[in-house]
Structures are given as structure tokens and as C-alpha cells.
Amino acid sequence: MHKILNFLLFKLFILISCTEKDKNVLVNDKNKIFLLDNYCTNIDDYEKNPLSKYQWHLKNIGQTAFSSEGGVIGEDINIYSVLKEECLSGKGIYVGVIDSGLQIGHPSLLPNIDNRPKKSKTWSLNFRLGSYASNDPSPLQTAKSDHGTMVAGIIGMRSNLGFGGTGVAPRVNLAGYNVINHSLQTFQNFLDSLGLSEASKGNDIFNMSYGLKNIRQIEYSSSSIKSAQSAIKYGTQFLRNKRGAIYIKASGNGFSNLGNYLDSCTIANRLEVSCQNSNMNYENTLYEVITVGAVNAKGIKSSYSTTGSSLWISAPGGEFGVDKMWVEKLYQQNDEDIIWSNQKKSIGEPAIVTTDVSGQRNGYSRRITYKDPDEIFDVGNSFNACEVNENSKCDYTNSMNGSSAAAPIVSGSVALILEKNPILSWRDIKYILAKTAKKVDSNFKGIKIKVNDNLEYLLDQGWITNKAGFTFSNWYGFGVIDVEKAVEFAKNYNFRFPQFIEKNWISNTSEVNLSSNFGFFQTEIHIPKNESLNIESIQIRVSIESQYIGDVSLELISPQGTKNIIWHAGNAFTSNGNLDDMQMLSNAFYGEKSYGIWKLNVINTGIHKKNLKFKQWKLKVSGH
């Protein structure tokens, strides 16, 4: 029956797509006839888009979205007029979802999936042999949830159906590549997913809502790193008629924990810095990648969002979406008590509403017995328990969060920008996002520690303004995406970047030992004026030996005096976690001139009283 329904829906949407030249079409759903505008989406039209009232990331009116607390009015991506008045929808733009999978038969995703191998511009790939067809990356029927299906809904849930809500780009073309499964992460599978196959090379945007939780440096020789780097470099040079595909990646969710590495985050939690640095994930250090952090419904950094100098922009990722009173009531009915951890004070703040694996037993939203406390806690609220009319079939969830939710919001936003101005290059997109981002949490001044009675040290910076006039933060990148401003800027955008130049690495080998107490030294690299570029990216590589590399802080200072903490002390890189030519990236110097003396401050904070041996560093400038 489910397959028959999907077939009928598919036929229905073929009819719609064939009549797009007409301004309006009729769609019959649930015995109601809706007059649909093909392109415009009104977030306030709850008859056409019943879930949009809960999608605070699109329009924040302080709604709780079935959690315990509401957000702050106006803390959203400023997209209302772009969808309703400009009537942008992402139509004609193709997004590849590099993830765990994508349920291609989901009723809110099916209209945006043209999945015919060799006939469509793009199509999905299924790397899980023996499960479904080679172009069907849907989760297995035994799967409890599917990350990629939730990501896809944030990007491109079809609007105006009379059920569901809306994606950021509700008419974008979606394709899924289920490579994010340990057994499927082969060199070839990554290449095939990221633009080097017939199935994926037609994508304009690649959404990469994945990352590592590592406490040691990952070898550059690993297959996933090598293949991703190769594909991304090729994609920015040759895809989209050589304008370059857009690669958008989640920064990470490692601010307060790294999964099983609980002890590694003890110092970071005490110091209130990020346990994970965004530079710990190699793909975050590639200048072609737009790395995205997460903010919550109050407009400040989400409690889990990984920080670091490689962030480009932030977007809503929310918190955990739990309705504490609902959970407590059901616990009491089962004679159980629940104690809420102080470490997750934000557990009752809104998460993101999106598509979930459809059906009443799979996904975050599912029917439960109300007898199992663990199941009650996992579901977390009445929406996920399918008690709400708008989710009576359990096809949607209000619990998606993470930088994994923030990245697809940026991907959908970029789809709208490209729809408005399709000749923009990947470099143009980065510039537009940086130029139009909204500064949030302006009172954040950074994190300090007291070294002794006479000395304080700045572990992590607040907002800085570089000499090119860009404001930047390791917590937010250039700020939170503002879709209306970005689209308006793109509409009249006529700047064309000169040829992109990637300089060679410049090295400084000067071995220095620092004692176990607080210690500091400075090393320099000089760039002559005739080698100067307008900076689009600064990368460094560092080699350091230490019995506790998380005690080390690295500050990079540009010739024009801008300072950025590229590697903050207190992070989770632990004992014997030496840095061996480890690559890091900073976006803080964007737009500055590169010539002059670059200074690297190396600080041993002495938190664990371990010695340090600095061996060498390298600097690479890319720009024009």
C-alpha cells in the first residue's frame, strides 16, 4: 500500500511539473483542493504549510516548537520575504546530500527528487549493496532514524502541499549519497559522491553534515581524507561550467563532549572552551569548504557547536527540543524519577522541525507504549510521539539539531542565492555570505584563564575586526546567515574575482623547547611585497611534540596586526597527541594584504605541567 501511495504521489507531481508554465495548479490532498502558487511560499499560511508555524529557524516568533522554552523573536535567517514576495524556491538548483542516506519516497521529499540514472541531471547513489536499487539510498526498514533524511528536509522539504512544512529552498532538486557509514567510506565512494561521477557531477551544492570525533591527528593518507580533498579541489575548478561547486560542511558538535572520549573534555568544560577545535577535522581546513557553526533559537552559539578559526558562517541548529514537563509527567505515571543534568541546561530549548523517516515505528517520531522510560526520554515530546495532528503519521520530527542542521540551512540558502544569480562562482558565494552575515552575541569578549596572581591569558577570542573591515569570531565565523541581505546583494552583484592563486608553502624550522610552566615564544615568516595577495585563505601546518598537546595555544598575527587564535588550549588533543605537520586554517584575515611579517605565538599554558618541543611551521596564502 505504501509503495502504491508513493507511486500515486509521484504521478501527481509529474503532473504538477508538467504544468509549471501556468501560474497556479490544483492539487487534491486529504479531500481538500488547494490553489497552489508554484513558486511562492508563505510561512504564515498554515493551511498549506501546517508545520511552518513551528519552524523558528525560518520565522522566529518565540515559539517553543513542542520543547519547554521558546526562543527570541527575530533570531532566524531572515527568509520570509525571499520565499513569499521574491518567490525564490531553489528551482533549477541541484543539491547533493552526502550523508547516511535519504528516504526518496518521503511524501515531502519525493516531489523534489528526479532520480533516473543517465536521464536526470543528477541521481542518488546507494553504496549499501544488496539492500535497495543502486539509485535508492533510503534507510533500511530496520533503521531507527536517518540523519540524511532530516538534513534533506531542512534543505528542500516541498512546501504548499497541505501537509508538512517547508525547506529553506522548497523546490530544489535533491539527490542522496549514503557514504557516511563506516563500512561504506571507501576512496571511490567519496569520489563518486562529491562530484566525480555521472550521478553527482551535476550538483551545484554538496551538503556535508558529517565529521569526526577524534582526540588525535588523523593521517592525511586515510582514504576518506584523500578522496574528499581530490573531489573538492576538482569540483571547485571544473563543476558548474568551471564556476565551481559549493561545498558546505558542518563544523562539529564537540564543544562539550566527544562521544566516548568523556575524560578528554574535562578541562575544556571547566575552562568553558570548545573541547573540539574545528581544525581537528581535516576537511574543515580546506579553503574551498564553507564550514558552518550552529546557533540556537536565542541567537547565540548552540551549546554543542564546535568552535575554531576555520568557521565561515553560522546558522540555526537549535538545541535538543525536549519538553521536560511532558517527560516528567510520563515518568511519574511509571513511578520513575528524572533528574536533569546541569551540563545540558539547554535540553528544553527548541531544535529544528524537519522530515523524519516516515512511518509509525521508525525515526525520531514514532508510536510508543508510554511504559519504557528510556523510550519516553528518547522521544522527548508530544510531537515526536505523534500526538499532534500535524504529525499524526509520524513523518516529521522536531528534534533535529547540531551543526548538521545548520549546514543544510546554509545549503538551502545558497540554492536561493544561485537561483537569483546563477553565474556566481564558489568564491563569489563565500564573499557574499561573509559580507552580509549578521553579527550576533556582540557582548561575547572571549574566555580568559588566570595563570597566576599577576597574569591572565586569553584562551579564546571574542569578535575581532580585521584590517579589511570584516568582523570575525571563532565562535560564529563572520556571523549568522541573513538570506534576505544575501539575495539582495547577489541580485546586483557584478564583481568578478581575478584568477585564484594558491601560493607554495613557506617554512620556518626553528626548534624551541618550552618548560612545563607557562611559557611563550614567537617565530616569524616573511612574505615579500612582490609576492603579496589579497587574502582569501590562510593555512598553516605545525609540528609540535608534547606529552599533552591540548595545553598548547597557537596565535597567528598578520603583518597588519590582526591576531587570531588558531589552536586554543584546553582542547581534547591528549597525551601523546603530537602535531605532525598538522594543517589548520584561519578565515580571520580575509581581505587583508598578505605581504610582510607573519608571527606565530606558541604558548605552553602549563595546565598539565608538561614540556613542549616546537619543531617547525609552514604558511600558505591563497587569494588574488
UniProtKB/TrEMBL annotation:
Keywords: Calcium, Hydrolase, Protease, Serine protease, Signal
Name of this chain's protein: P/Homo B domain-containing protein
InterPro entries: Galactose-bd-like_sf (IPR008979), Kexin/furin (IPR034182), P_dom (IPR002884), Peptidase_S8/S53_dom (IPR000209), Peptidase_S8/S53_dom_sf (IPR036852), Peptidase_S8_Asp-AS (IPR023827), Peptidase_S8_His-AS (IPR022398), Peptidase_S8_subtilisin-rel (IPR015500)
PROSITE patterns: P_HOMO_B, SUBTILASE, SUBTILASE_ASP, SUBTILASE_HIS
Pfam family, one: P_proprotein
Active-site annotation: D99, H147, S404
Top-level lineage group: Bacteria
Gene3D superfamilies documented for this protein: Galactose-binding domain-like, Peptidase S8/S53 domain
GO biological process annotation, one example: protein processing
Gene Ontology cellular component terms for the protein in this record: cytoplasm; endomembrane system; membrane
SUPFAM superfamilies: Galactose-binding domain-like (SSF49785), Subtilisin-like (SSF52743)
Family: Belongs to the peptidase S8 family. Furin subfamily.
Originating organism: Spirobacillus cienkowskii
